[in-house]
Amino acid sequence: MNSTGTLVRDTFSTAFAKNFILIGVWISLSYINISMVATFFSNHIFYEDPRYILFIHMVINDAVQLTVTVTLFIVSYIYYTINVSVCCVIILVAVFTTRNTPINLAGMAVERYIAICEPLRHTQICTVRRTYILIGFIWFICIVPDITDLFITLSTESISFFHSSIMCMRQNVFKEPVLLYKRQAFDAIYFSLVFLTLIYTYLKILFAARAISTEKTSVRKARKTILLHGVQLLMCMLSYISPSVEVMLNIIFPGRILEIRYANYLIVYIMPRFLGPIIYGARDQKFCKYLKRYFIIVQCKSSTRVHRQDEDD
């Protein structure tokens, strides 16, 4: 629907192109995520490191978020409307996992701050047990604000509403005006806290890196890592303001709501998921070493399987 309530749909070629690109991105990211999860669980050395525990939690969370949102995007083109009860579950999972990533990154920023600025206390503060407690706390603060939307909707809508079919969008399911204001208030709070955490920890890490480093290359690498962390976190934080931005862009560019939503989805929900593997996979020497070993093992197993099949033939 556009701003006037008129139904707007893509042409077949446009819809096919959008979904083809999206499926290609999903397959690529899923392959990367599965490889990283397999690398983590295949090497016990990562089990005792809070940094990698938080990282793999983010990878799994992003994989779920990506799968759910891509499925919803494709289903919206095939069926247009789906059952409200099913839509509720999909929307809530998408919201929980989307909100989870910026907060998880903020936790990783704090862990890096302690490791660099308080190295002697790092092993005492950042224990495995406390890391799992932090993950539980992250999920708690992600779920509680939005699960109340479901309870309010259950109390205000009739049973028949949950048996009906609608276009699966958050504002179509959770329609109470008070929910919009509540959502904006919580988004502002999360945005402020995560942004302040980002600024404080990354500036501290940058100054510490300059102070303790004797080689220019190490300072430059630390600065690039911090910059990539900041870009990823800021891109994830766009999810807090993307609904408002979408409304503004629709006013500026009327009649382009479908293009605006597609671009918004790619920039806010897809692109940040590419940066995580780059920062913690390709650029992290320790993890990259084991990741390469995993690919070598998989390649060797594939070659052995093909060789045995040739011998059988």
TrEMBL record:
Q: Which domain of life is it from?
A: Eukaryota
Q: GO CC terms for this protein?
A: membrane
Instruction: Tell me which UniProt keywords the record has, alphabetically.
Output: Membrane, Transmembrane, Transmembrane helix
- Could you tell me which residue ranges the G-protein coupled receptors family 1 profile domain spans? 32-280
Q: Which residues cross the membrane?
A: 20-41, 80-98, 131-152, 188-213, 225-242, 262-282
Q: Which InterPro entries match?
A: GPCR1_Superfamily_Member (IPR052921), GPCR_Rhodpsn (IPR000276), GPCR_Rhodpsn_7TM (IPR017452)
Q: Where in the cell is it found?
A: Membrane
A molecular function (GO) held by this record is: odorant binding
What PANTHER family does its record include?
G_PROTEIN_RECEP_F1_2 DOMAIN-CONTAINING PROTEIN, ODORANT RECEPTOR
The protein's name is Odorant receptor 131-2-like
Classification from the root reads:
Eukaryota, Metazoa, Chordata, Craniata, Vertebrata
Q: Which gene encodes it?
A: LOC108271622
